[in-house]
TrEMBL record:
Occurrences of domain Mechanosensitive ion channel MscS (ranges): 269-334
Oligomer and partners: Homoheptamer.
Organism: Ruegeria conchae
Matching Gene3D superfamilies: 1.10.287.1260, 2.30.30.60, 3.30.70.100
Lipid bilayer topology: Multi-pass membrane protein
Protein name (Swiss-Prot/TrEMBL): Small-conductance mechanosensitive channel
Length: 440
């Protein structure tokens, strides 16, 4: 029994020893896990503060940093800029001293340092922008922004004209400067031309597709094709701008704000727009139709989403707002293929009405533009104050209406004169009644 108790004591002692050894081991493992994280964080800050880092890498590595870390990085990059400007200032002093033997060498050094300084300043600006984006305090950020503004002005003041000219010339021929800007401009122009070409092709395809739908008005087809063209073009321009590094997200916010403002400022115009869309969809008339609306009449020449252009017989152009058209009675004279021509001929009470009717029937029957069906109607329609009015109502194609109207009017006058049928003008018989006792 004692032997078992002794064995149990030995086992408990061994467990206690192993536990005491395990706790420090766990603490050591935790410490070793935290140590690489701290080292990695320190390496990240060191890499971000390295003045040889490229702008693309810097922009990516700035993303995980906090405002406090960005504050430290901003100070580091400010030191880089300061050191670079110090070198530039010393070389400028040497140039102003007039050391002609070393002038070419100094200008070469200055050109190289200027290029490096431009990159460093751009990276410094990237750090400040990221810091401001993450909520940098105004009192912390302002000294840096003021420093950047002041040094740009100071460099211009302290640099001699020859160096400025040399720097400007180098900027013009460098891919990071004028040459790159010219290439980017040519690329934008080429992209705009391509998008214009693509938009035109898509518009033609949409027009061909819409032509196969007979229920859509010509005005709506034109509107849809134009809308497709501008939608493709604007979308393409936004894509091109995004490819060239332009942030197009603020443009959508601007468009949203402008649409909200214009919605209040252009209520009447929006009313015309809505009316124009209703006219295009419901199709009360189409281009080429002869309509009477809003006190105006003529052929519909063109219609936009805002107004309708009407051309009168004497070639006058009338622009009518769509809201006025949609809110008024619309008479579409060209809606039907056939139209009745209403003519009225007055003859004297002493003339033979039946003979006049036969003459008109003969004229209508011989006119090639008068339709045989429906049958024309010619009859005594009214006993007027000065004449017996004969109604003549033949049918014609809508396009031939006015030709038939004017032809029959002229032919009827000639035949009535030949047949001795008079067309009376308004007259009045006055009877004088003598009054007794009146002085003569």
């Amino acid at each position: 029994m004692a032997r078992y108790i002794y064995g149990l004591v030995i086992l408990l002692f061994a467990a206690a020893v192993s536990t005491s050894n395990a706790v420090p081991a766990y603490a050591q493992n935790a410490a070793t896990e935290q140590e690489p994280a701290a080292v990695q964080q320190e390496d990240l800050l060191t890499e971000v503060a390295d003045k040889s880092i490229s702008a693309g890498d810097l922009e990516i590595l700035l993303v995980p940093l906090t405002t406090d870390e960005l504050s430290e990085i901003a100070v580091a990059w400010q030191d880089h800029v300061r050191n670079q400007l110090e070198e530039i200032a010393r070389i400028n002093l040497s140039l102003q001293a007039g050391n002609e033997a070393q002038e070419d060498d100094l200008r070469s050094q200055l050109s190289l340092i200027n290029d490096t300084g431009t990159v460093i300043l751009d990276n410094y600006t990237l750090v400040l922008n990221e810091w401001a984006l993450k909520g940098a305090a105004e009192e912390d950020l302002k000294p840096h922004t003021d420093y950047v503004l002041a040094l740009k002005t100071g460099v211009l003041k302290t640099t001699d004209l020859q160096t400025l000219f040399h720097n400007a010339l180098q900027w013009l021929v460098s891919w990071e400067g004028g040459a790159g800007l010219l290439l980017a401009g040519l690329g934008v122009l080429a992209a705009v031309w391509v998008m214009m070409f693509v938009a035109k092709v898509v518009r033609r395809l949409s027009e061909r597709g819409l032509e196969k739908i007979p229920t859509i008005s010509r005005m709506l087809k034109k509107f849809i094709a134009t809308a497709v063209f501008w939608a493709i073009f604007i979308l393409g321009i936004l894509v091109v701008l995004a490819l060239f590094g332009v942030n197009v997200t603020p443009l959508f916010a601007i468009f949203g704000g402008l649409s909200f403002i214009l919605g209040f400022a252009l209520q009447e115009t929006l009313g015309n727009l809505a009316s124009g869309l209703m006219i295009m969809v419901l199709k009360p008339f189409d281009t080429g139709d002869y309509i009477q609306v809003g006190g105006s009449s003529g052929f519909v020449d063109e219609m936009s989403v805002v107004s309708t252009k009407i051309r009168t017989f004497d070639n006058q152009i009338i622009i009518v707002p769509n809201s006025k058209i949609w809110g008024d009675v619309i008479t579409n004279v060209s809606a039907s293929d056939e139209r009745r021509v209403d003519l009225v001929f007055g003859i004297a009470y002493s003339d033979n009405a039946a003979h006049a009717i036969n003459v008109l029937k003969e004229l209508v029957g011989r006119h090639e533009l008068c339709l045989k069906s429906p049958d024309p109607e010619i009859f005594v329609g009214e006993l007027g104050d000065n004449s017996v009015n004969i109604f003549c109502r033949p049918w014609s194609k809508s396009d031939d209406y006015w030709t038939v109207y004017w032809d029959l009017t002229g032919q009827a006058k000639e035949r009535f004169d030949q047949e001795g049928i008079s067309i009376p003008f308004p007259q009045r018989d006055v009877h004088l009644i003598p009054v007794e006792g009146a002085k003569t």
